[in-house]
User: Fold Long chain acyl-CoA synthetase from Fragilariopsis cylindrus CCMP1102.
Amino acid sequence: MIDSQPSPNFARFLNKEFIEFKTLHELQEVACNAYSENPLYGTYNEARGQYEYMKYEDFGRKVQECRAVLKNLGVEQYDKIGIISNNSPEWAMLAAAAYSLNTTLVPLYEAQNPSDWTYILNDSSASVVFCSTRNIFDRFTKEVLPMTPQVHSTLCFDAKDDEEYGYQTVLGRIHGYTLVEQRTPPCEEDLANLIYTSGTTGLPKGVELTHSNVVSNVKGGRSMSKNPYDLLDESSRTLAFLPWAHSYGQTVELWMGMAFGASCGICRGVPFLLEDLQLVKPTVLFAVPTLYKKIYDGVQNKMKSGHYVQDTLLTNAIQIGSKNAQFQRGERVPLGYVDQIKFDLLDKIVISKIRDRFGGQLRYGCVAGAACSPKVLLFMDAIGISVLEGYGLTETSPIITLNSPGRRSIGSVGKSIPGVTVYIVDKDGNELPPGEEGEICCVGPNVMRGYHKNPEATKEVITTAPDGKSRMFHTGDMGKMDLDGWVSVTGRIKEQYKLENGKYIVPAPVENALGMSRFICQVVLVGANRPYNIALIVPEWDAIRQEFDLKDDIPDIQIVNDERVTNLIDNEILESCKSLKKFEIPKDWAFVAPFTAANNMITPKMSLRKHKIEEAYDDLISNLYGDTLAIFVAASSSSSMLLESESSSSYLIISFPLDSELFGYSSS
Assistant:
């Protein structure tokens, strides 16, 4: 392990005024005062082709103006304020203004259906709603407003100045308001956020997060390092592309960054991610595993391109980079003289080019939301970017455990943050000894108040801890904890099932193993009460085309009939699952259409809705367990129709996504 030297900003961190914030409102006000001249939020200026930033002091003034608008709308403390918007400075402004009046923010996703907006706004009793764009505003007023009678005011951020429902229009009508005295500062235990879980099954539940919940995460996260400025400081930049409507993105990108005086470029959207990385040049990036896996797959594809010089250079670069990373982690002696020269050369001509994909200045990545393969983490180490894996849920604000600079264990999701205690318990709630698998539970100030208007659901997940007095949250995840406190997640309790023979299957490890193939984009394991497992696979077409040197103009439907592709996936399954038990390995598979938010098969936070997927491919799944040749046309994301069948040991599956493009193949 490397001991970092205290940064020049360490004395500032020890300044009592800076660290003594107890609410998100206090955090915003103290930060805007302490870092007044620092850049805060950056947005893309299309005319200039670059990101432009507002200062902390400018943001503070905008919060004051927004607070005046809320007062003008008749907002009072404890009211609920809805916002339907992607990430933007206005999103952060409204959140801070809402907190300053001791009201509660109810964030919603632009990508959600109007029916979801209706349910959430009614369940939360939100009385004021802010919409990001005219399109969102029109959809809301047409499809949602008639069904939400408690909503008395709706404003649009990007409306024209003279439109009565425009935010700027209302702001322009306000004269002579007193900015500072309008505040109604919240207490620590007042409700800050009401975040609705997207829900892979059933209706979404409103998670009540207090100021104390979120602030404990901000302070706990920054206390994980010996030097709290190892990860973030005033010179740090992040690129925000995680949705702030979710607790992960909001806590780490909004509030943790602000606590250090860091700046944050706001990504224009996933299609622009690679371009925005080049423009913002983040030093820290909070992400989900998919991003790092894409870079890993891209390098793996290039290493197997068939071009001898390129393949050799990349392979040698990653090998020597891995040796250097082992030294940096304290796992081996320093590189020898020859190896050091080799590393310096290959880092300059090869590895730095990979780092440039992230903007060229990225020091740390942070990942949560799903398991990140140790192979990917070791690869990122080899190219000189340490990726810190963490774990948590919306209900825990969200961080429970975290790896941190100078304190990492690859393959683990880290140790509990300060103030949080992790328990591994059996089905009866009894604490298990280190190394035994059970349910991951936690106690701490990060645990939600409860589910909004749902005491029954709250009682199901919050019980008394083994100490006999503390409120303990049940995550629903299976895991282990070793003697040193390192936590590993092994699967989701509700997703485990039995095969016909009574053997238990935990899908996550199998799906994660298959997902490491560069030829597989998404995968779902199926097998409950069946004789064996099968896999529904969304292929990575670009990698498959490259593998067989196939031209881009060849339709996917022709590729799936290629026996080489069938054999490739068969071999990938066997290779990926070498470390698994025989009964866990899928014996059959099928190519299917991508799982997307548009076909309702993933949630806004990218979790798979497995019940929806299994419903959509019910006939396909049934035939995968039979001995028939079956051709299907998926008429929609939730129905399919058997067109033809005959006896055979293999079968062709043709599925039509919602845009009616042919997609899919399966093989025994």
In short: The mean pLDDT is 88. The domain at 23-222 is CATH 3.40.50.12780 (Rossmann fold). The first strand starts at residue 39 and ends at 45. The first helix runs from residue 10 to 13.
